Amino acid sequence: MHSSLARKILLALVAPALALPAAVQAGALERIKRGGEIVLGYIDNAAPFSETGADGQPKGYSVDLCRAVAEGIGQQLGVAGLKTRWQKLTVQNRLEAVHAGRVDLECSTTTWTLTRQRTVDFSLITFVDGANVLSLVKSGGTQLSAFAGKRIAVLAGTTTEKVLREALSRRKLQAEVVTIASRPEGVRLVEQAEIDGFASDRTTLIGAIAQLPNRGRFQLLDEDLSVEPYALALPRDDQEFRVAVNRVLAGLYRGGGIRAIYDRSLGPLGPPSLLLNATYFIQAVPE
Q1: Which CATH architecture has domain 131-220?
Q2: Residues forming beta bridges with residue 40, ordered by sequence position
Q3: What is the CA radius of gyration of the chain?
Q4: Residue range(s) occupied by CATH 3.40.190.10 in the chain
Q5: Of 46, 157, 161, nearest to 108 (Cα)?
Q6: Confidence of residue 211 (pLDDT cuts 50, 70, 90)
Q7: How many angstroms separate the CA atoms of 35 and 83, rounded?
Q8: In what order do the strands lie in the sheet with 228-234?
């Protein structure tokens, strides 16, 4: 075979592998074991799922789940004292950070969708929420129709943005959708009456106003606009890592350890819903 032709064939064979992020090529478990460290990403201001605590460390339901996963992976790999490094992300860059291999897991409020699964993979479902709209009690009704002719803020690039636009279109409601960058900004805009409503996931909206002295001024819609299945985002095409992550989660669901994690961050909002309990139950995959 001519040498130039051989080089072209070799390049065609290796090019797809070279295009993959380095972390995916090596395999996350292999890299974690070799470096003795797992990198976890989280979003601030997404209480009660992920936020920065008073001590500067991340905390919340999804954060605690990832801590349990990191500990479980260390045990599976036989790495005593596996180090955990946290990296703060944004709603806009969280999936790209996983895809590029800058973090091994993303631990916040990411909804598992088929479109997103073209870029990253997902663990077992960790929570089930629904999109809703926060507004001031004095603004009027608790139906989406009350926002006709008004302005609703939503985080740019989220599933909630898509759900909101579709809901308004389906119900033939003329409302202005204003995209913003963070949940605190959305709550502030509603509180100061600069916007009529702020659309986000119900539980994060409750968490965002829970500590406000004037939280009684706020209200939510009577019904959710969607069902949002949360999961931990992880690199695509890394089956061994996905199994290792799911082994820990399934063990928590199977053995009941998930309830202690739930109660720490979500307990004040009430017990797990019937839907969430069913989600834990059906995902208690046996070894």
Answers
A1: 3-Layer(aba) Sandwich (3.40)
A2: 86, 105
A3: 21
A4: 23-129+229-282, 131-220
A5: 46
A6: confident
A7: 9
A8: 83-89, 37-43, 105-106, 228-234, 121-129
What gap in Å lies between CA 119 and CA 98, rounded to an integer? 9
What's the rounded Cα separation, in Å, for the pair 70 and 111?
A: 21
Which one is the CATH code of 23-129+229-282: 3.90.700.10, 3.90.190.20, 3.40.190.10, 1.10.260.40? 3.40.190.10
Structure-token pair, residue 256: 């009941």
pLDDT of 140-149, one tens digit each? 889 999 999 9
Q: pLDDT per residue over 216-266, tens digit each?
A: 999 999 999 999 999 999 999 999 999 999 999 999 999 999 999 999 999
Residue 203: both structure tokens together: 């539980």
pLDDT of residue 26: 63
DSSP lists the bridge partners of residue 280 as none
The token pair at 73 is 């992976």
Distance between CA atoms of residues 197 and 187, nearest Å: 9
Please tell me the predicted confidence (pLDDT) of residue 8: 42
